[in-house]
């Protein structure tokens, strides 16, 4: 046994944690990040609105045990505001990425099955969306729809499908030349039957991973356009609102107003990213069973 | 009524002609062997005959009419690599009954065991998978079978066993079979006649008038 192995073994023996294989570790990471995200939602939903009411006796308190994230210039607890904001972001993220995935699935399948003209149109649309700066399109759509929650959700939903569409189109194109799909056609099966029985099950991993990986994008973009003032209205407890408000107070020394909500947003986005990456490594080796 | 290929010409996009002027006919109850060097287009011809590919020139006639574009195709193709011809995410039972529900006698003749039904394709061997593919292709509406090197990767015993079953069914139902193989002794044993693809390509290479260099696939032979 090499010395490296010996070290590894002694490590695993001295450590309290049982030695996990790669798959178990991946699952553990998935469970942990999912739990973190769920606890954010639970916190946001369980916290009553009374934590958000103005309390002028407790203005601009720096972080303490009572207010871990401090309070703002109206005496509102920043932890509560952050949790509420993240929950709202999460809802926007879920809605937007679900719509995006549905659009991507429809367009991707259509491009790959309905002939050259449709394929050309979809590919052109994808290229168009990918060639314009994302944030500009987002602002344009949100602004056209008059801002607000509806505007943000629609803007985020309508701009996140292009890259996933490409992936799904490529996948379907490849599947269509697969022998088992072609055989199915000669056995008298209809296009619809083949699409639902042969193609869709192969696309599920792509869709699932695509959905989870779209989340962080959607959330960050929601925060970004809200921060820029084109998104959610100021009275809503959105992270983008919190961050843009706190910018005004940064120079006066109220550092906690921006730092903690910003960090929390970062942690949540990373948790989603990790969740998506691990899900992908779990489903990508194409092991249909186990 | 025969399955006929008349003046088949095929190429990919603007590439060189893979097939040109191929004439071939298979009568019901007849076993025709098709041979030829690698890369000459035997598999392409098989795909055209079974309606997987549309010829650019000429046509395929079944009973004097065209092959059906939708619905069950009476000309069924069995592939060389069965692992690619079954959906890896389906259990074997679903693959087996995709076209029709094979009767127990056929399953027994092909020695397909019931305990394989709940398995995934990657848990079965190539020979076992190929039996499933044959059973799937031998539906009651099948009248012609195109067997593209279906036993090339199998051992001699399995090969014999599978061909015995196929021969029995072919005789019983009066099916026409096109056997594609490099194995001349096997084809001599099985087939009524053997066709060399090189000899049936009437005007090969491509017509010089089209301003392109006719590339003969046999030029690539080492």
Description:
The complex is a heterodimer of chains A (290) and B (222). Chain A is mainly α and 290 residues long. Chain A has a domain at 22-54 and 67-102 and 112-161 and 212-283. In chain A, 73% of the residues lie in helices and 0% in strands. In chain A, helix 5 packs antiparallel against helix 6 (148-157), helix 6 (148-157) packs across helix 9 (191-227) and helix 9 (191-227) packs antiparallel against helix 11 (256-283). The relative contact order of chain A is 0.13. Residues 1-14 of chain A have low confidence and may be disordered. Chain B is globular. Chain B is α/β, with parallel strands linked by helices and 222 residues long. The longest helix of chain B is centred in the last third of the chain and has 18 residues, at 156-173. In chain B, 27% of the residues lie in helices and 21% in strands. Mean pLDDT of chain B is 85; it is low at 205-222. Chain B has one domain: Rossmann fold (3-Layer(aba) Sandwich), CATH 3.40.50. Chain B contains seven helices and nine strands; from the N terminus they run βββαβββαααβαβαβα. In chain B, the strands form two sheets. A five-stranded parallel beta sheet of chain B has the order 6-7-8-3-9, with helices on both faces. In chain B, 39% of the residues are buried. Classes of the chains: A mainly alpha (290), B alpha/beta (222). The A-B interface holds A 178-184, 186-190, 198, 201-202, 286, 288-289 and B 50-52, 70-73, 76-77, 79, 81, 84-89, 95, 98-99, 120, 136, 139.
How do the helices and strands line up, and which of them pair or pack?
The complex is a heterodimer of chains A (290) and B (222).
Chain A: H1 3-14, H2 22-46, H3 78-113, H4 115-131, H5 134-144, H6 148-157, H7 162-176, H8 179-186, H9 191-227, H10 239-250, H11 256-283
Helix pairs in contact in A: 2-3, 2-11, 3-4, 3-6, 3-7, 3-9, 3-11, 4-7, 5-6, 6-9, 7-9, 9-10, 9-11, 10-11
Chain B: E1 3-10, E2 19-26, E3 31-35, H1 42-49, E4 57-62, E5 65-66, E6 75-78, H2 92-96, H3 104-109, H4 126-137, E7 144-148, H5 156-173, E8 176-180, H6 184-190, E9 193-196, H7 197-200
Parallel strand pairs in B: 3-8, 3-9, 6-7, 7-8
Antiparallel strand pairs in B: 1-2, 1-4, 4-5
């Amino acid at each position: 046994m090499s010395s490296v192995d010996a070290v590894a073994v002694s490590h695993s023996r001295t450590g309290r944690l049982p030695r996990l294989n790669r798959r178990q570790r991946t699952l553990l990471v998935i469970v942990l990040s999912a739990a973190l995200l769920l606890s954010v939602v639970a916190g946001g939903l369980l916290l009553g609105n009374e934590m958000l009411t103005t309390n002028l006796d407790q203005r601009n308190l720096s972080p303490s045990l009572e207010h871990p994230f401090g309070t703002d210039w109206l005496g509102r607890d920043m932890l509560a505001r952050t949790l509420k904001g993240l929950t709202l972001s999460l809802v926007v993220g879920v809605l937007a990425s679900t719509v995006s995935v549905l659009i991507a699935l429809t367009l991707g399948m259509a491009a790959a099955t309905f002939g050259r003209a449709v394929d050309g149109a979809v590919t052109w649309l994808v290229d168009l969306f990918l060639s314009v700066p994302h944030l500009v399109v987002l602002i344009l759509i949100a602004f056209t729809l008059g801002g607000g929650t509806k505007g943000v959700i629609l803007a985020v939903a309508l701009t996140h499908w292009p890259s996933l569409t490409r992936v799904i189109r490529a996948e379907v194109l490849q599947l269509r030349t697969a022998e088992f799909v072609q055989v199915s056609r000669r056995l008298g099966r209809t296009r619809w039957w083949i699409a639902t029985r042969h193609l869709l099950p192969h696309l599920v991993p792509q869709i699932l991973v695509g959905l989870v990986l779209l989340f962080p994008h959607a959330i960050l973009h929601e925060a970004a356009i809200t921060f820029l003032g084109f998104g959610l209205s100021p009275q809503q407890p959105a992270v983008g609102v919190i961050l843009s408000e706190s910018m005004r107070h940064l120079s006066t020394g109220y550092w906690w107003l921006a730092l903690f909500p910003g960090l929390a947003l970062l942690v949540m986005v990373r948790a989603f990213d990790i969740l998506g990456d691990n899900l992908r490594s779990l489903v990508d080796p194409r092991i249909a069973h186990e | 009524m025969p399955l006929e290929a008349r003046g088949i010409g095929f190429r990919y996009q603007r590439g060189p002609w893979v097939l040109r002027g191929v004439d071939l006919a298979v009568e019901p109850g007849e076993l025709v062997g098709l041979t030829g060097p690698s890369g000459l287009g035997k598999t392409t011809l098989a795909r055209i005959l079974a309606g997987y590919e549309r010829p650019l020139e000429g046509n395929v006639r079944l009973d004097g009419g065209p092959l059906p574009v939708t619905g069950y195709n009476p000309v069924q193709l069995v592939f060389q690599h069965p692992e690619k011809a079954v959906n890896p995410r389906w259990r074997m039972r679903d693959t087996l009954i995709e076209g029709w529900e094979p009767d127990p006698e056929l399953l027994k003749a092909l020695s397909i065991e019931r305990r394989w039904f709940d398995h995934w394709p990657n848990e079965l061997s190539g020979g076992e998978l190929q039996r499933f593919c044959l059973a799937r292709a031998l539906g009651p509406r099948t009248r012609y079978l195109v067997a593209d090197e279906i036993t090339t990767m199998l051992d001699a015993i399995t090969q014999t066993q599978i061909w015995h079953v196929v021969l029995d069914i072919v005789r019983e139902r009066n099916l026409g079979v096109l056997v594609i193989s490099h194995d001349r002794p096997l084809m001599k044993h099985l087939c009524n006649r053997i066709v060399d693809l090189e000899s049936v390509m009437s005007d090969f290479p491509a017509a010089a008038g089209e301003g392109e260099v006719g590339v003969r696939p046999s030029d690539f032979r080492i």
